Amino acid sequence: MNEQIRVSHYGATFGKKTILKDLSFSLAGNQLTVVLGENGAGKTTLIKAILQAALVKSKGKPVQTIQVQAKRLAYVPQFRDLGADYPLSIQSFVGLGIRDHGLPWLTKKEKAAVSDALRRLDLAEIADLPLAKASGGQKQRAYIAQALAKKPDLLILDEPSSALDGKHAAFLVEQIRQVQQDFQMGVLWISHDTSWVRKTADSFLWLHDQTVTMGAAKDLPKEADSKHREEVLHVF
Questions:
Q1: Which of 29, 80, 192, 195 could make an SS bond with 234 (beta carbons 3.0 to 4.6 A apart)?
Q2: What angle do CA 179, 181, 185 make, to 5 degrees?
Q3: What Pfam family is a match, any one (predicted)?
């Protein structure tokens, strides 16, 4: 498989505290990789560094600590608030994710992509609902549908099931896995919940003790299982 992300001797500090130290790993594209670790282990720090590297044009510059090969990148943050007076419907909001610039109206192909994203995230029946009136879980699924509509080759999700109930969390895992396989995209999924990882994911990145352990999802060590049970949905 083609290499999509390469990290070479990456480190991160917060003040005088070392968060991550000398991380080196590579991830192939076309895989679902789950990023695990307790609070403060550096999951979000690493993801932000990967996002920043993806946005930097490497042509004519020295080799970077983090290199990302992705033409279309989509990112769904953990927390997002568009306000109580946001005017667009769920369908219109999802359509905003199709392209970064160009004409304000969508082509037939792009409209089909929006409809497909709405269907996959169980939003088709409420597509005309103003996003501001949607529940927290519906909003979260709309954010993910917007990311999927652009058909990225790398999708990064920061704890996307945190606002969902158990039923929709399980549904989301299944749908993201299906989309990943259908479109052969790379997916990086930050999660506190390890209960579904061994069965569904391809690989894992476990951040602990300032370093990283990685491998096939089926071989996830028991030591990596979630300790904060109150934060875990246990979708399976």
A1: 195
A2: 80
A3: ABC_tran
- Residue type for position 74: A
Q: Residue 58 pLDDT > 70, yes or no?
A: no
> Which amino acid, residue 227?
K
In the predicted model, what is the mean pLDDT of the chain? Answer: 86
Show Cβ contacts of residue 76 under 8 Å, excluding neighbours closer than 6 positions: 143, 144, 147, 155, 156, 157, 158, 160
- Token pair 């790379």: residue: 186
pLDDT tens sequence across 77-133: 877 777 778 889 999 999 987 876 555 678 899 899 999 999 999 999 999 999 999
| pTM for this model (two decimals) | 0.87
Strand order of the sheet with strand 3-14? 17-28, 3-14, 66-68
DSSP 96-154: TTS-SSS-SS--HHHHHHHHHHHHHTT-GGGTTSBGGGS-HHHHHHHHHHHHHHT--SE
Which DSSP symbol is given to 220? -
Query: What domains are defined for the chain?
Result: 1-72+153-174+185-236 (3.40.50.300), 83-151 (no CATH)
H or E stretch at 18: strand 17-28
Q: The tokens of 201 are what?
A: 């994911």
